[in-house]
Amino acid sequence: MQPKTSKLNLQNLINYPFEKILVLSKTTSTNAVAKELFNNGVKSAVVVSESQTAGKGRLNRTFFSPKGKGVYLSVLLCPSISILNAPLITGFCGVQVANAIEKLSGAKTFLKWVNDLFINGKKVGGILTESGINASTKTLDYVIVGIGVNVYDCNYPEFIKDIATNIEKESGVKVDKTRLIAEIINGLLGLESAVESKDFLAEYKERQIILNKQVKVVLSNEEFYATAVDVDESGALIVIKDGVKRSVTVGDVSVRF
Ligand code: BTN
User: Fold this and answer.
1) What's this model's pTM, rounded to 2 decimal places?
2) Rounded to 5 degrees, what are φ and ψ at 78?
C-alpha cells in the first residue's frame, strides 16, 4: 500500500496560501466538495481525496477513482479571467499536469483535445473544469479544475480496461502522490497570465496526439470523420472535413491508434 497524501507535506510543498486545504479519505467528487466550499464563501481551496464514489468526467462520464490508486484533486480559484478565455483553462492545466507527470516519472505524456492525458496511447488521466460566470462583468466568478490521474497499477473495470493505464505501469515508477499533487498545483498557479498571453498554446499543440490525424468528431447533434489540423487561439479544435475547415468547441473526438 502506498502512503496516503499528507496534508502537512502538501502544505509545505505548495507555493500559494490557499484558504483551505482538505485531504479526505473518501468523498463523492472533489469537484462537488470544492463547489460547496465556494458556495460557503471560500475563494481558494485544494481538495484531495484518496477515493471518490461519484468521480465525474466530461460529458457526464464517470471517472473510476479506486482507493489509494490515483490523484483525485480539485483546485478552486477565483482568477480574473474573461469568459472569452475560459475555454483555454483546461488546455493550460493539461500542459501543467503532463509536465508534472513527466518530471516525476520520466514517462512522455501526451494530450488529447480537450482534456485527456495519454501515455503510450492509453488514457492516464483527465481534467474536468467547472466555472461560474459573472454576466455583468463577463468574467469568471470561480474556476474549479478537477484533475484525475491514474498513478498506481490496478485492475480496471470492463468499460475502461482496454483504454486506461497508469503511471506505474507505463514508467515502472511509483511516484509519490503528494509530490505529484504539489507539482500540479504549483504549475496551475500561472493560470491567469497564461490564458491571457496564450503562451502555453504552442506546448499544448506539441503534446496533442490527434493533430494531422483522422478523428471521429462527436457533437450533440452529429458525428463525422475529419482531419484534426490545429487548435486555435480560442482553444477550439480546427478540423477539415471534405476540404472545408470547421471549428469544434464542444464535443468529443476520438482517434484509432
Ligand atoms: C475526464 O476524463 O473526462 C475528466 C476526469 C476528471 C476527474 C477528476 S478526479 C477529481 C475531480 N473530481 C471529479 O469528480 N472529477 C475530477
Assistant:
1) 0.97
2) -120, 65
